[in-house]
Each structure stands twice: as C-alpha cells, then as structure tokens.
Amino acid sequence: MAKSDSIEAILDFAIENEIEACKFYTDLAAKVDNPAMNPVRDKASEMPDGRQRRPVSNGMKQVFLDFAAEEQGHRKLLEDAKKGKTVKIGGEKIADLKIAEYAVDVKPTANMDYQAALILAMKKEKAAFALYTDLAAAAQEPAAKQLFQFLARQEAKHKLRFELEYDDVILKDN
Ligand SMILES: [Fe+2]
Ligand SMILES: [Fe+2]
Questions:
Q1: Based on the structure, what is the number of domains in the chain?
Q2: In which domain, by residue range, is 19 found?
Q3: Residue 149 sits in a domain of what CATH number?
Q4: Contacting residues for 69 by C-beta, under 8 A, at least 6 apart
Q5: Ligand 1: distance of its center to the CA of 18 in Å?
Q6: CA of 145 to the centre of ligand 2 (A)
Q7: CA–centroid distance, residue 14 to ligand 1 (Å)
Q8: pTM of the predicted model, to two decimals?
Q9: FRET partner for 162 with CA separation of 20 to 30 A, picked from 62, 81, 104, 123?
C-alpha cells in the first residue's frame, strides 16, 4: 500500500498500527520479568558488541500495560470514525499523505533485548505522532481535527515516556 488514495486506506493503516502497538506493549509487559530483560550486570550478560544488557526500570510493566490499553482505545476511536465516516479530507490533501512515510518497517522479535525494544517503541510512537499531526492538519471537520490532535498528544506522551526510560536505563552509568 504505497499510496493513500482514500481516507479509508489511511484509517485502515492507522488502525493496523494501533493493533500492532497494543500487541507490542502487551507482549513487553509480559516479558519484563524475564531474566533476559533483567540481566545481572556481569560479563555473562554483555552483548556481543560489549554493551551491557540493561534491566527494566521499576514501574515499566504497568506503563506498558497502560499504554497497551490506550492503543486499544485509539483503535476503537479510529474504527468508530471510519464506520461513522466522520473524517473528511480533500482529495489534494489525501494525495499528500503518503502512508509509507509513516510506516516503521522494523518488527519486534521474540529475543529482542530491552534497548532494541525501547528504540522500536520510540520509532513507532514518533511515526504515529507524525501521522496524527498531519491528519489533524488535513481534516476538515472540527471533530475529526480534535480526534487526531488528541491521538497525536497521546503518542507524544508515549514517546516521551520511552525517551525518559531510555535515558534512565541505557544512557546512564554505562
Ligand atoms: Fe496509539
Ligand atoms: Fe502510542
């Protein structure tokens, strides 16, 4: 799907991303207690490139669960908007919205370490923020604008939370 030729295609793309995000955070929440995510700081837990695997901060399990629930809510909002045909965007602006520009090609893997998972989470949130910001600008109806502005704010909040966690666990006291 290289071209976003209709608002339905864009909403389907956004809905698919929300489903993926919900699953990603649900899976992460389930994994944060695993030893692989909470390594002892020793030689044995070094990555092949010499970097230390970093443990997950306290409270992050709940953050992942909360965000999974929020992504689930976003999916519902978008599905309702699609069903109700409440989002109207002019043809010229639709042509400007290129789905590929908001796509994150990396997929989560089962043995992904915490650093890689946080990087992917930040990328996904950044892409979602950009998509909703541009949709808010393009949407004609005030209600649709507000919906996308709300979603953009939520994704910005998610991104910021992961940036703080990244600073805490990856960048500090290496
Ligand atoms: Fe979302
Ligand atoms: Fe998000």
A1: 1
A2: 7-171
A3: 1.20.1260.10
A4: none
A5: 5
A6: 18
A7: 8
A8: 0.88
A9: 81
